[in-house]
Amino acid sequence: MNKEEAKTRIAELSKIIEGHNYNYYILAQPTISDYDFDMLLNELIDLERQFPDLVLPDSPTQRVGGDITKEFQTVRHRYPMLSLSNSYNIEEVKDFISRIKKTIEEEVEFVCELKFDGISISLTYENGLFVKAVTRGDGTQGDDVTANVKTIRTIPLRLKGDFPDFFEMRGEIIMPHSSFNSINNEREDLGLQPFANPRNAAAGTIKLQDSKEVAKRKLDQYCYFMMMDDDKMIFKNHYESLMAAKQWGFNVSNFMALCKNIEDIEDFINYWDEKRNELPFDIDGIVIKVNDFRQREILGFTAKSPRWAIAYKFKAEEAHTKLLSVDFQVGRHGTITPVANLEPVQLAGTIVKRATLHNADFIEQLDLHYDDIVSVEKGGEIIPKITAVDLNKRKEFSNKVTFIEKCPECGTQLIKAEGETAWYCPNTLGCPPQIKGRIEHFISRKAMNIESLGEGKVEVLFDNKLINNYSDLYDLTYDKIFGLEKIIIVDNDNLENTTRKVSFKEKTANNIIDAIKKSRSVPFARVLYALGIKYVGETTAKLIAKTMGSIDNIINASVEDLMEIEEVGEKIALSIKDFFADERNIHIINRLKEAGLQFEQEVKKVNSNQVLSGMNIVVSGVFSTMSRDEIKQLIEDLGGKNVSSISSKTTFVLAGDKMGPEKRKKAESLGIEIKSEADFLEMINADIDSDSDKKDTAGVQGVLEFDF
Ligand code: IVH
Questions:
Q1: Rounded Cα–Cα distance for residues 402 and 394 (Å)
Q2: Nearest atom of ligand 1 to the alpha carbon of 86
Q3: Residue 701 has pLDDT above 50, yes or no
Q4: Is the pLDDT of residue 689 over 60?
Q5: Per-residue CA distances from 494 to 200, 319, 378, 491 (Å)
Q6: Beta-carbon neighbour count of residue 682 at 10 Å?
Q7: Cα(33) to centroid(ligand 1), Å
Q8: Least CB-packed of 13, 384, 416, 481 within 10 Å?
Q9: For 164, how many CA atoms within 13 A lie in the half-sphere containing its CB?
């Protein structure tokens, strides 16, 4: 395909793919299969690789994230981002309406909307293209988070229809419950503090430096306010403007209503107060806005908020019940989490019989006693929490809840790391829930993918003393597991627990042995993740595997070496060192090696243009044409070696923007050449171009292998 044809096809594909994104994410009505969608996306990715200068600013490939943002730029808002005044009962809403009626002596129409519980964002569109996303910040200036926001599929990158040349769309970035739950499960799995609620998770996510990571977290966004210069405003009222925004491709909630009086408003509030638990995301109230723009102008603003709108905040849903007992659960990394068992009580549409007590400090702050009557709340949080104790109802001789000193599962004395709130059981390799938890992590889909061993089967094998660590899995045979069974009690969160039989019948046993066999070819990065080293998640494992190349290199690396790896700080480096300092872990790894697992990074096919062969290159700073990772990959592909620190053996330093001053000083003192990005590109292009036999490329990126 020549360049002209590619240009047409790239534009066509971008449009088709974004159309499917819209059908899928906004309308929830996909019209093609996932497979066909992937085929289109892959075709676009291929073309963009071949013709990098033809990548469109609104290319759907940007939805997967790209470069690392070192620091967010502070940007001044063109129109300040105000907040709303709050009301907490219907009387206050009535007062708001009376105030308005006093000023506007004609009929006033209101729009009632959901009050999305996330973080507000301002999106700028120029000539139909999304150009900038800025957080609220202090209302006057915020952070430019454009790269991260581009990964949110419900935000249009190019608008459809007849839109103004320039305007801003305001809305809320939210984290749906489904994303929140899976992220928190993963965080707990990694020994990280889970997010307290979806709002915090959304706020934390939008400020991540790696937009690829943001893309994985599946944020969503709703628009609720259009802004443009007064003399350019083409709509008469808010409702009209949102309906038009919807036509242009924005995600505008269907749950809004035009209301003529307080009765309609009250109905809307009451309806959503009751139904809000059925939404797949959190709302914390209702926003009531004057619809007409002319009336809004008359009403004006106070210093902080418009006089034409008010937020009605829902009360956090609360119930009162008795504390029956406290369980102490042991996680995969040994962390002890206290969990309150409560007399079952109806709350926000579900029956609650357990609530997390977080840690020892939390219990102490509540001064919790057994048999206490406690308040349980389900506000923004999904997991109910105990917020207060009714001291008037405390029984006279009730016992104070004290934190345990020994592990409830293996009896080991608990310890607490300096500066941390959690107690944990240090008996890593001997404590049953830790052993089972690690094996369950090892077999999980993103790790070794031996999922046929899920749903209680690990427990059965452990109980039968067939497995005590994950290397034992590779000694299992059909004969050893066939016929095993156990009745397991399932807590299905209703009042009654039910039972389930776990059995290893012929087909199951065969599947398991087969999946274990297949897992021997799982790539090194996933094996490293599967080992379950504290704080080493999927992405970190990938970066470590890629940089270090083999398990032996990791075992022999110093903390400093490890900290040279992208995303690896001291905490992770120390955790890795601790893991490999334990002889028992080394023994397990040796057994896994004998079993034939992959402990070395697969060698990528070698590029025939080895123009950097024999060169030791230090990469420093931020680059404009490629991310650091891509540059490093390119160096390797072209036969060069990436080294982290400058020495007399360094061939040259490849310096991007913001190169560290220490590095520059060192390079200068050793007389090492500092090459700019442009010089470097020219150097390798020249070499590749002169190699005319092998040349099939329109530049460097033609030989790059991107990892989408
Ligand atoms: S309108 C001039 N509409 O609530 C005010 N805000 O304190 C424009 N919010 O900062 C805001 N849902 O982050 C508006 N349907 C909605 C909203 C909404 C959530 C947030 C927004 C704002 C805060 C108000």
A1: 16
A2: 7
A3: no
A4: no
A5: 29, 17, 17, 7
A6: 13
A7: 36
A8: 416
A9: 19
**Where would I find the beta strands (DSSP E) of 238-392?**
256-259, 283-290, 309-313, 317-330, 336-347, 350-356, 373-378, 385-389
Helices 262-275 and 90-103, axial angle in degrees (round to 10): 150
Per residue, the 3-state secondary structure of 482-524, as one string, reads CCCEEEEEECCCCCCCEEEEEECCHHHHHHHHHHHHHHHHCCH
Q: How far apart are CA 634 and CA 684, in angstroms?
A: 10
Q: How far is the CA of 433 from the centre of ligand 1 (A)?
A: 45
Residue whose C-alpha is closest to residue 515's, from 453, 606, 576, 465: 453
Span 32-57, average pLDDT: 85
Nearest CA to ligand 1 atom 18: 115
Neighbours of 240 (CB within 10 A): 15
pLDDT at residue 522 in the model? 93
Looking at every residue in the chain, the average pLDDT score rounds to 88
Which among 83, 206, 281, 293 is the best mutation to test ligand 1's pocket, defined by most ligand atoms within 8 Å of the CB? 83
Residue nearest to atom 22 of ligand 1 (CA): 83
Question: How distant, in Å, are the alpha carbons of 410, 483, 642 from that of 634?
Answer: 51, 53, 10
Dihedral sign for Cα atoms in the order 182, 185, 189, 195: positive
Residue 468 confidence (pLDDT) above 70: yes
Q: Token digits for 630?
A: 């891509």
| Pairing mode, strands 85-87 and 309-313 | parallel
517/453 Cα distance (integer angstroms): 13
pLDDT digits (tens, 9 = 90+) for 621-680: 777 777 777 788 888 888 888 887 788 888 999 988 777 777 788 888 889 999 998 888
Out of 3, 15, 102, 115, which one is annotated catalytic? 115
| Residue-wise burial string across 191-223, b where 16 or more C-beta atoms lie within 10 A, e elsewhere | beebbebbbbbbbebbebebbbbbbbbbbbbbb
Ligand 1 pocket, Cβ-based, cut-off 6 angstroms: 82-84, 113, 115-116, 120, 172, 224-225, 287, 306, 311
Could you tell me what percent of the chain has a pLDDT over 70? Answer: 93
Q: How many other CB atoms sit within 10 Å of the CB of residue 407? A: 24
For residue 50, the surrounding DSSP H or E stretch is helix 34-50
Kindly state the tokens that stand for 472: 């034992």
DSSP state for residue 575 in the 8-state scheme: H
Within the chain, how many helices (H) and strands (E) appear? Answer: 24, 24
Helices (H), 82-157: 90-103, 146-149
Task: Give the angle subtended at the CA of 655 by the CAs of 654 and 658, to the nearest 5°.
Answer: 155
Q: Please report, for residues 26, 119, 346, 348, 384, the alpha-carbon distance to residue 277 in angstroms, rounded to integers and kept in the order given.
A: 21, 20, 13, 7, 13
- Give the residue from 284, 318, 109, 107 showing the smallest Cα distance to 202: 284
Q: What is the largest CA-CA distance in the chain?
A: 91
Question: Any idea which residue has 């934190």 for tokens?
Answer: 403
Question: Angle 59-117-169 (CA atoms, 0-180°, nearest 5)?
Answer: 40
Phi, psi of 313 (to 5 degrees): -95, 130
Buried b (16+ CB within 10 A) or exposed e, 302-337: eeeebbbbbbbebeebebebebeebebebbbbbbbb
User: How far is Cα of residue 461 from the mean position of the Cα atoms in its chain?
Assistant: 33
Q: Is 339 within 8 Å of 355 (Cβ atoms)?
A: yes
Close Cβ partners of 254 (under 8 Å, ≥ 6 residues apart): none
- Decide if pLDDT at 201 tops 70: yes
Q: Whose CA is nearest to atom 23 of ligand 1?
A: 83
Catalytic residue status for 315: no
Query: Helical H runs in 344-472?
Result: 360-366, 432-443, 457-463
Strands (E) across 136-216 are located at 141-143, 166-174
Q: In the block, which residue shows the tokens 């708001």?
A: 96
CA–CA separation, 151 and 160 (whole Å)? 19
| Mean pLDDT within 349-354 | 82
